[in-house]
Amino acid sequence: MTRPGTRPPRSPFAPEVLPDGRRRFSHEAVVARRLLLAGLLAAGVGGGALAARLTGEDPGAVPAGGAPAAAGAAGEVAGEVAPAAPQAVVASPATPAQVQGPSRTEAASPWVVVNKQHPLDPRDYAPALAVVAGKEVAAVIAPDLRALLEDARRDGVGLSVTSGYRSFQRQTAVHDDAVVRDGLETAESVSARPGYSEHQTGLAVDFGGRTAPGCLLEDCFGQTPESDWLRAHAGRHGFLLRYPEGATAVTGYDAEPWHWRWVGTDLVQRLTEARVATLEEFFGISGGPVYA
Ligand SMILES: [Zn+2]
């Protein structure tokens, strides 16, 4: 991550200009561009301006922050044919180096991004804990989580905490069980490997609702009044819907309407203002369904 006040180095994805004026893109640039496009298309994200940049309508543009540069359709000389299968998805050409705030890599940071490309460091990290509604969570989120639950109760909404902090050892058992139960491919789409779970930070909470007990940790939780209430009010307590619909290519997970991640109200507000749904997109951090 580039420090504030310093100019990012020339992007490795920028083209080399040939003597005849054509531009040669490195293999890495071609691969990165294809992965970025594939990820954005799969995720259904990206506005018109972004699409124009990526499809070469403005081939000179190099997004700030060192994100993969756009490649012009005409005059492009690829070093070799890129493989079709995506590895990791670079979620956004946003300006990550310009986002000021807490660390995105330190495990205890409220802004830490944990996904299949970015495990916790150390892998067996454990936070300071507090107990809220009978579940362990990171102590830092306890005041906001208590306030959220009280807010919901006042509104007559019966929210419960199904899962909060899960230790490295616990996540190992959860993941192993999911693999045995669902097979590796399905398990990996819903259950993180130990060291890669947001629950291990203590900053993530799985909510349950009173009205539809059968929808616990199921897609149909998204159609409950409790889910509606969370979507309308959780942000004011610093919680973000971490795995939204249509973002699997970015987050690496199918939609989970019950899984909310505390990031603090400041970051929720910034994402809202930027009209960005995921941490990966906002920070320009890689994610997606493939493990690093
Ligand atoms: Zn969860």
Total number of distinct structural domains:
2
* CATH structural class of the largest domain: Alpha Beta
Indicate the mean pLDDT.
78
Helical content (DSSP H or I, runs of 4+): 25-40%
Question: How does the major sheet shape up?
Answer: 4 strands, antiparallel
**Overall body shape:** globular
What attributes characterize this protein structure?
292 residues, alpha+beta, Muramoyl-pentapeptide Carboxypeptidase, domain 2, 2 domains, four-stranded antiparallel beta sheet, three-stranded mixed beta sheet, 9 helices, 11 strands, 30% helix, disordered N terminus, binds zinc ion, carboxypeptidase activity, hydrolase
Structure described in brief:
This protein folds into 2 domains: 16-88, no CATH class; 129-287, Muramoyl-pentapeptide Carboxypeptidase, domain 2 (2-Layer Sandwich), CATH 3.30.1380. It contains 9 helices and 11 strands.
List the helices and strands and how they pair.
Elements: E1 16-17, E2 23-25, H1 27-43, H2 48-54, E3 76-78, E4 89-90, E5 129-132, E6 135-138, H3 142-154, E7 159-163, H4 168-182, H5 184-190, E8 204-209, H6 225-233, E9 239-241, H7 248-251, E10 259-262, H8 265-274, H9 279-283, E11 286-287
Parallel strand pairs: 2-3
Antiparallel strand pairs: 1-2, 4-11, 5-6, 7-8, 8-10, 9-10
This protein binds zinc ion.
Give an overview of the whole structure:
- With 292 residues, the chain is of the alpha+beta class.
- It has nine helices and eleven strands.
- It has helices at residues 27-43, 48-54, 142-154, 168-182, 184-190, 225-233, 248-251, 265-274, 279-283, and strands at 16-17, 23-25, 76-78, 89-90, 129-132, 135-138, 159-163, 204-209, 239-241, 259-262, 286-287.
- A four-stranded antiparallel β-sheet has the order 7-8-10-9. Strands 1-2-3 form a three-stranded mixed β-sheet.
- A hairpin with a 2-residue loop joins strand 5 (129-132) and strand 6 (135-138).
- The structure holds zinc ion (ZN).
- The site of zinc ion has 5 residues, from strand 8.
